[in-house]
Amino acid sequence: MASNERILILGSEGQLGSELSAQLQQRHGLQNVICTDIRNGHPNTERRFMELDVLNADAVEQVIISENVTTIYLLAAVLSAKGETNPMFAWKLNMDSLLQVLQLSVKHKVNRVFWPSSIAAFGPTTPKTDTPQHPYMDPNTVYGVSKLSGELWCQYFFTRYGLDVRSLRYPGIISWKTPPGGGTTDYAVEIFHEALKKGSYESFLHAQTSLPMMFIDDAIRATLELMEAPAEKVKERTSYNLAAMSFTPAELAEAIQKRLPNFTIGYKTDFRQAIADSWPGSIDDSAARRDWGWQHRFDLDALVDEMLNNLRNRV
Ligand code: AKB
């Protein structure tokens, strides 16, 4: 397929990157999508892949120059739970990579940059229900602090240099092809694997902890729709609230039990409970719906059907 875009994905092998890169390849052609990560997670897949450490600014700059990159998706990140085990490294990876990409994008006139934020940018004092687009934000994890700071840097580069940076505050993403790594919402993926493998699951979050969640197909579509929206429609230059559904571990277990009646769940909370308690239970994403027409497609039942149907053959 002919495309004028030359797309660089930094962090192509993770949960979002692996599915987003496949969609971008379909839209723009294999030649025009350069997948990079510190390791090749899909060695048998036909595509353009380069091993690249996102913290190596010189190497990233070389790729931007040699490939005439027009669009960058920066997806490499340390997530919330893993970040708490090594806060200084999480800060370094999450912030240095963003600041380098923003500066290189201005220097080499990259047209558009995508950077993911998260519900982790909110904190304990943020309103918990239908969290608005512009609430008080006081994140208390290093991941959340990096997301809030990163959002402000994105807005700064847009205002100061006119760089077209776009961002979404993702909820927990549920996927079956590539697992998430090191997040607080990971229970909602693990539970499906364990339900099919063992018929039971021990949740590290409390039964009644409600968190915003989204099926991966919706998350990828939201990303592409935001990136393809005309610039004048993108009014939030920090990051957009994005929502599909909210549920608790107990509600998810009940939905699984409707399909697997013998499935049982137990609860043994750990340090991730405090992280979840600091985040909102539900999100008001009316700005995204109004500005660029966001609409989710998957609710809890559709998500559980997709997960079980696809994982049944794999597990
Ligand atoms: C995490 O749990 O850290 C992530 C997120 C909500 O950003 N899934």
Outline the structure in words.
- The chain is α/β, with parallel strands linked by helices.
- The chain has two domains: 7-172 and 215-241, Rossmann fold (3-Layer(aba) Sandwich), CATH 3.40.50.720; 175-213 and 244-311, UDP-galactose 4-epimerase, domain 1, CATH 3.90.25.10.
- It has eleven helices and twelve strands.
- α4 (87-107) packs parallel to α5, α6 (187-197) runs parallel beside α8 and α8 (249-259) packs across α11.
- The longest helix has 21 residues, at 87-107.
- It starts with 6 loop residues before the first strand and ends with a helix.
- 47% of the residues are buried.
- It binds 2-amino-3-ketobutyric acid (AKB).
- 2-amino-3-ketobutyric acid binds at residues 79-80, 118-120, 143, 170, 172, 180, 183-185.
Task: Please tag this protein with its features.
UDP-galactose 4-epimerase, domain 1, Rossmann fold, binds 2-amino-3-ketobutyric acid, alpha/beta, 315 residues, 11 helices, 42% helix, 2 domains, globular
Sum this structure up briefly:
The protein is an alpha/beta fold and about 325 residues long. About 40% of the residues lie in helices and about 15% in strands.
